[in-house]
């Protein structure tokens, strides 16, 4: 039997575990002087109250490795194969840590997804098509798909990405000019980068829609519309998007705190696959 494990940076919610057939490793979040487990004991309303109204800047850290090791080895001892899909090594140390932890376990495969949030949802959906195949076969399919995944979002401010160390000072300064609305994505190494900018919010939305169309979105895969805190701008983005893409959209993903704390409130965008 194949067991699939993701971390909470996938934004797959605890109540979606059965739907996706995964175990979820909660990332840790330090908010003020208290540590929480992402998606487990940190309610969204409480998180945003601390973030917006109290100005607390959260710090994130790796999942509890003892818990992860115990769960994985339990599956291995049962004779199961284990596939672990953490968020990109470009924004988290989870991949490198787990890769070293399980490097001698032939029945455990840790893959650098080079993406996060809805990108990992898309990878899990792909895995679920081939659960009866070998780890080698599944890994090849994922490594073919990963470079085709695009994450493009418009944050309300770059302050959170910069303070969290996910965006360079140069990109931060260039995207913080008055009226400039940057488009932020991931490069092929899994690091966060600026992929464009528009003068004003509407122009930035038009550019994001243009990316969807001109990059060649493959509607055989899910399009994951995502947001933090408020979905107002996301709804407007969808309204501006050709209806031929709507059927591929898989609901609205309100990103979990471990990712939302770096994007800040009122960010929004699409995760999709190109042909």
Can you give me a brief rundown of this structure?
This protein is an alpha/beta fold and 275 residues long.
How is this fold's topology laid out?
Layout: E1 2-7, H1 17-20, E2 22-25, E3 28-31, E4 34-37, H2 44-53, E5 59-61, H3 65-77, E6 81-85, H4 94-101, E7 108-110, H5 118-127, H6 135-145, E8 149-154, H7 159-163, H8 169-174, E9 180-186, E10 192-199, H9 201-214, E11 224-227, H10 232-240, E12 253-254, H11 257-263, E13 268-273
Parallel strand pairs: 1-2, 1-6, 6-7, 11-12
Antiparallel strand pairs: 3-4, 3-5, 8-9, 8-13, 9-10, 11-13
What is the residue-mean pLDDT, rounded to a whole number? 91
What general outline do the C-alpha atoms trace? globular
Strand order of the largest sheet: 10-9-8-13-11-12
Round the Cα radius of gyration to an integer and report it. Answer: 18 Å
Q: How much helicity do the residues have?
A: 25-40%
CATH architectural category of the largest domain = 3-Layer(aba) Sandwich
H and E order = EHEEEHEHEHEHHEHHEEHEHEHE
Counted by DSSP, the helix tally is 11
What is the count of distinct domains? 2
State the total count of DSSP E strands: 13
Strand content: 15-25%
- For the record, the CATH class of the largest domain is Alpha Beta
By secondary-structure content and strand pairing, the structural class works out as: alpha/beta
Largest sheet: 6 strands, mixed
CATH fold-level name of the largest domain: Rossmann fold
- Span of the ends, CA to CA: 31 Å
Q: Which regions are unreliable across 5 or more consecutive residues at pLDDT < 50?
A: none
